[in-house]
Amino acid sequence: MSRIEATLKNVLLMQEKSLIAYVMAGDPSLAATEEIVLEVDRAGADLIEIGVPFSDPIADGPTIQKAADRALKHNVSMADVLVLVAKLRKQTKVPLILMSYCNTILAYGLPQFFKEARRVGVNGLIVPDLPPEEAGGFLPLARRELIDMIFLVAPTTPDDRLKKILKTGSGFVYYVPLTGVTGSKLSGKAEVCERITALKTHTDRPVVAGFGIASPEDAGEIGQAADGIIVGSALVKIIGTATENPNYLSDLSAFVSSLKGALRKS
């Protein structure tokens, strides 16, 4: 069992659900991201997802797109993100997941990327524009380097693709409860919970929900069915105030604590 899956299952044993917090590397700076990740860890996040900035993030809404633009203005690269992870790994044991678009990894070089990712302490990888049918070059390298490949499942995912994802992915199943981009408004929460419950009958791996979860109330409701939740845009929005809000870190910490509090009650 991987570090990611073990963490999610250990949290369940404590009668809680996991909080996965997303931050964009390099927003507002790489040094700030290091501080942000450690603060989010202290505030109660069980796992942390670090976004690698990309110029055309098709799965992301305006909030994360703007964060990526800010990071790219500082020329933040994959190499920079891996150095960041190495620094973080010396300071925290929290599982770290990279979220990167396919072209960024291919430009770095597949074998080199996975080798370096393992060396610095990456535990999982999410590539939102990489369907499982096209992941053949990634999967053997990920398995060799003990890095979970995490695929997204949507309400519109066909049964044959779902079977492929459940067979080839690892770590957890990432359920996207809406058809849209990150930061979209989540509605029909009862139906979302029903779909998550149905999905869990097809896999022994934890099922985690992301996209559209923006408040402790959302987290608590979706956490009734999911094994964990991912919150990104709501956190990135707070981080986006860094230049004019000297208290942004404490605001971020308080929000993360409130999200985790809701998941202790789920």
TrEMBL record:
Reaction equations catalysed: (1S,2R)-1-C-(indol-3-yl)glycerol 3-phosphate + L-serine = D-glyceraldehyde 3-phosphate + L-tryptophan + H2O
Lineage: unclassified sequences, metagenomes, ecological metagenomes
Lyase among keywords: yes
GO molecular function, one term: tryptophan synthase activity
Native source organism of the sequence: hydrothermal vent metagenome
One cellular component term from this protein's GO annotations in UniProt: cytosol
Protein name, per record: tryptophan synthase
HAMAP family, per the entry: Trp_synth_alpha
CDD domains: Tryptophan_synthase_alpha (cd04724)
InterPro entries per UniProt: Aldolase_TIM, RibuloseP-bd_barrel, Trp_synthase_alpha_AS, Trp_synthase_suA
Subunit and partners: Tetramer of two alpha and two beta chains.
Keywords per UniProt: Amino-acid biosynthesis, Aromatic amino acid biosynthesis, Lyase, Tryptophan biosynthesis
EC number, as in UniProt: 4.2.1.20
Signal peptide: none
Listed pathway(s): Amino-acid biosynthesis; L-tryptophan biosynthesis; L-tryptophan from chorismate: step 5/5
Coiled coil ranges: none
